[in-house]
Amino acid sequence: MRIDMRTRRAFTAVAGSVVLLTATGCGAADMTKQASPYANAQGAKTVTLSVQSWVGAQANVAVAQYLLEHELGYRVDTVQVDEVPAWDALSQGRVDAILEDWGHPDQVQRYVKDKKTIQPAGGLGVTGHIGWFVPTYFAKKHPDVTNWKNLNKYADQLKTAESGGKGQLIDGSPSYVTNDTALVKNLKLDYQVVFAGSEAAQITQMKQFAKQKKPFLSYWYTPQWLTQQVPMTEVKLPKYKEGCDADPKKITCAYPTTPLQKYLNTGFAKNGGEAAQLLKNFKWTTEDQNQVSLLIADKKLTPEAAAKKWVDTHHSTWKNWLPKK
Fold first, then answer.
1. DSSP E strands, 191-250
2. Which residue in 70, 75, 166, 243 has a CA-CA distance of 20 to 30 Å to 255?
3. Which pLDDT score is estimated for 325?
């Protein structure tokens, strides 16, 4: 990843949402030609939020939706759209906001700078990072595994039936933007990238390995609630430098650290009233996001119930997001 910088994850649709299932590049419907029935509804106090397919993004939307509905009286609809198509939908006003973007410079240039159909809405308050991780129990036993130069030494211990005699590097969905295949090739590592298929499947696999105290190497990211249950240690790849990921086929460097950003449709940013103001003001911490994510993904609360639980105990945080009367 880093080209368009992002990844990951599986998503359980928000209760009551209109969910548009996508699989970029896999023959799925063109998401820019679909929209929530509430998007831009004339005369109605409505907001349509894009939900990316990972639980952290779902947590953002759940809390924003709860506050918009219960504090400001809006009708909120959500639409699941893959990362790049979400920018097209936002530009066209089919959704009003993206609350967690991991860095898409091509889309920023096209829609924010050139077309001016999308406006930045400030930082989310969360810093994201993608990398390669091993379980901490394995890193403590073999400290040198945390340097990429030593990974080939452990390839035999990390191979599986799916990795073809090589070490296995677990990735999420094939639709995620990832540099891993190029990194394995360019760094001459004796590993095979094996896609779990989704964030949920990847988590299941990692938890099974951890339960048996087996070693594994995985493409992973922070923030993510699973690290509270399965402590992981990052494997240091060659240091990231600006521009080192310009050519995806030649990448040999680590993923960058990315302050996550929010974006609004330009028309909504100007005319969205209290809803637009709340979303601009929305800013929380990694700990906040992980609390809600854990309630949704691990404790199996509905997104609304998870949001309510967080809202009930964090009044001093979210009250500052509300528009001033």
1. 191-195, 217-222, 232-235
2. 166
3. 74
